[in-house]
Each structure stands twice: as structure tokens, then as C-alpha cells.
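// run 5 | inverse folding | seed 20
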């Protein structure tokens, strides 16, 4: 295809043309190279030249379009790779910090659970002391209460342990749920942002194609208008020349007819055709003063 294009591959620099908008020089070069002086469709050579030039413009357009598509695909791949890296790194950092937060707070969490257990135990012991004071005089009752207190203490301790375990489990589950909800929400936001950027890229690309096609169409119309005007002037000039040639031919024929009509009279007067022709020529060329032929 390169041997049919009006441009060379090194003239198409995608970053400058499609991102920096430096395409005027390329378009001007193509228009200049493809402009045909006095195009004509009346000859085989003229039609072949027009057809070949138009094909060269089309080949140049295809090459530029391929360069644009390749650049767009590369830029889109870079955006996707960057967003993926941001999301993956963000999730990893978040997970690490959540885990580190739990590790750092673990002594305080255990302390709070133990402190609560101690407070509950102290309240229980205070209740036991009151019962002992009441039952001091009754040994049998004291023994019975002692056994009951031991059982109650065991049950109380087990209940405190279960409560501490339940609180710890509920807290961990709540933190995990909050973590999962946050991750899901951020992942959805990242996906939505990725989709928005993709759609924006597609829309921008479509708009750029529309603008580019409009510029090409406008330029094509301008070039066609100039070609049409040149053709109109050429036809008008040809018509003017034709009419002038016809008028000149008619004038020559008229003069010839008048001369032929005047020649017999001169022959009759002079008695010699050759002499008559010389006299007629002398009159026509102005060699005989004050005498002329009326046409």
C-alpha cells in the first residue's frame, strides 16, 4: 500500500497528530500532492490520473486510520492496566492495615474482657459474703450454701467466659462484615469508574472520528468546488474561443465572397485576370489610396 500513498509512514506521528492535534501540516501536504492542474475527463490519460490520485488519497486515509486505531488501543490498555494495579494495591494495603489494627489492639481487647470478668466476679463475691453473714450460726446450712456457692461460682465463671467469647466473636464478625461491605462498595465504585472511563474514551474516540470525518468532508467539498470552478472556466474559455473561431471563419468566407464578386468586374475592365487579381490585392492591402473594398 505504501507505494500508492501520497505520504510516507514516517510522516504519520500518532502522538502529535491525534493527541497534540498537529495534523494541519499532514492534511495540507496531502491536498497539495493530490491537486490536479486543469483536470480533464475527456481523455483516457486524464481520467486515469484522476482515478489514480483519488485512490492514493484513499490509501493515505486507510494508513492514517490504522495508526489512530493502534494508538487508541494502546492508550486504552494502559488505562485498564493502571486501574487494575490501583485497585489491587489498594485492597492489599487495606487488608494489611485492618489485620495490623487487630494485632495492635489485641492486648487492649483482652484487657477489657478480663476487666469485665473481674467486675462481675467481684459483684458475685459481694453477694456471697452477705449470704455467709446470715448463715454463720447454722453449720449445716453453711455447708449447703458453701456447696451452692461453689456451684454458682462455677456457673457464673462459665457464663462470664461465654459472654466474653460471644462479645469477642460478635465484634470480630461485625468488623469482618464492615470490612467486606467496604471492600464490596469500593470494588463496585472502582468498576463503575473503570466503565465510565472506558465509555468516555469510546465517546471521545467517536467524537474525534466525527470531527475528523467532517474536516475531511469539508476539505473534499472545497477541493471539489475549486475543481468545478476550474472546469466551468475552462468550458467558458473553450466556448469563447469556439465562437471567435467561427466568427473569424465567417468573416474570411464573407471577404472571399465579396472579392470573388468584385474580380469579374475588374477582369472586364482590365481585360486580364492576372492583372485584375493584382489590382484587387493592391486595393485590399491598402496600396491604392482612397480606394477600398466594402465588406
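// decoded
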Amino acid at each position: 500500500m505504501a507505494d500508492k500513498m501520497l505520504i510516507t509512514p514516517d510522516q504519520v506521528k500518532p502522538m502529535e497528530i491525534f493527541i497534540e492535534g498537529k495534523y494541519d501540516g499532514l492534511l495540507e501536504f496531502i491536498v497539495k500532492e493530490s491537486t490536479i492542474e486543469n483536470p480533464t475527463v475527456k481523455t483516457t490519460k486524464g481520467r486515469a490520473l484522476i482515478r489514480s490520485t483519488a485512490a492514493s488519497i484513499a490509501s493515505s486515509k486507510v494508513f492514517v486510520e490504522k495508526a489512530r486505531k493502534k494508538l487508541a488501543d494502546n492508550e486504552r490498555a494502559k488505562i485498564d492496566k493502571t486501574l487494575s494495579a490501583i485497585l489491587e494495591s489498594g485492597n492489599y494495603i487495606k487488608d494489611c492495615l485492618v489485620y495490623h489494627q487487630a494485632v495492635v489492639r489485641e492486648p487492649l481487647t483482652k484487657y477489657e474482657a478480663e476487666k469485665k470478668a473481674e467486675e462481675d466476679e467481684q459483684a458475685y463475691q459481694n453477694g456471697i459474703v452477705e449470704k455467709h453473714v446470715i448463715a454463720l450460726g447454722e453449720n449445716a446450712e453453711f455447708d449447703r450454701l458453701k456447696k451452692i456457692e461453689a456451684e454458682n461460682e462455677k456457673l457464673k465463671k462459665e457464663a462470664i467466659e461465654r459472654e466474653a467469647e460471644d462479645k469477642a466473636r460478635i465484634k470480630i464478625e461485625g468488623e469482618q462484615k464492615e470490612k467486606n461491605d467496604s471492600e464490596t462498595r469500593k470494588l463496585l465504585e472502582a468498576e463503575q469508574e473503570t466503565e465510565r472511563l472506558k465509555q468516555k474514551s469510546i465517546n471521545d474516540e467517536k467524537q474525534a472520528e466525527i470531527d475528523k470525518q467532517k474536516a475531511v468532508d469539508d476539505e473534499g467539498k472545497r477541493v471539489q468546488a475549486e475543481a468545478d470552478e476550474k472546469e466551468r472556466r475552462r468550458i467558458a474559455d473553450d466556448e469563447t474561443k469556439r465562437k471567435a473561431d467561427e466568427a473569424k471563419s465567417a468573416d474570411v468566407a464573407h471577404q472571399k465572397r465579396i472579392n470573388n464578386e468584385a474580380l469579374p468586374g475588374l477582369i472586364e475592365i482590365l481585360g486580364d485576370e492576372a492583372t485584375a487579381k493584382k489590382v484587387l490585392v493592391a486595393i485590399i492591402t491598402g496600396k491604392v489610396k482612397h480606394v477600398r473594398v466594402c465588406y
